[in-house]
Write a structure and sequence with these properties.
Helix content is about 35%, strand content about 25%. The protein is of the alpha+beta class and about 160 residues long.
Length: about 160
């Protein structure tokens, strides 16, 4: 399935603004084309929801979440940044592992199984994309997703098609 990435980003962004009125969500997009990515719309939605749910769940003090989008010739990049509790260097390497949760005692009351990020990673990599994390304890986290853009048919090809 071919999915217009920014439509999904905008939709999930608007959903989260509605669901979490106590948070400030910002969306900053440098995407001016309409990049299409080979991914099931539901899968992209699921990944964004996992990342945004986490950002909300692990931001207890500064309730601010920043989404940014950019593109180059081949890829579209989405970043989700929070200013919450952050993740230590040691744990950054492990949070994508199945069932891994930082500080089990502290995060137990927040619910969850430690599966969200491993699912997000599997989905993104399954579509030949990348997901990465940059974080610092006490300062917050940035999750970055990169997905390859599907090249649309060139003009000459479209002409070929319409003439046959
Ligand atoms: P669920 O299975 O419901 O997603 P979860 O949130 O525990 O539960 P993951 O989404 O896989 O599972 O996250 C793994 C761990 O990484 C979390 O338990 C949490 O400790 C840490 N983590 C994830 N996102 C963030 C974030 N934005 N800020 C701080 N810690 C985070």
């Amino acid at each position: 399935e071919k999915t217009p990435v920014m439509r999904v980003v905008n939709q999930v962004f608007n959903d989260f603004k509605m669901i979490h009125p106590d948070f400030t969500f910002t969306l900053d997009s440098d995407v001016y084309s309409n990049p299409i990515v080979q991914i099931y719309r539901n899968h992209l939605e699921q990944v964004l929801i996992i990342l945004l749910d986490n950002a909300v769940k692990y931001s207890t003090k500064r309730k601010e979440i920043h989404i940014s989008a950019a593109e180059d010739a081949r890829t579209v990049q989405i970043a989700i940044q929070d200013f919450g509790e952050g993740i230590s260097e040691e744990d950054v390497k492990k949070v994508f592992n199945r069932f891994y949760r930082v500080d089990k005692a502290r995060s137990r009351d927040k619910g969850g199984n430690g599966l969200g990020l491993s699912i997000a990673q599997r989905l993104i990599e399954g579509y030949h994309g990348k997901i990465s994390l940059e974080s610092s304890v006490g300062y917050g986290s940035i999750f970055r997703i990169t997905l390859p853009i599907v090249k649309e048919k060139s003009d000459s090809k479209l002409k070929e098609k319409s003439s046959d």
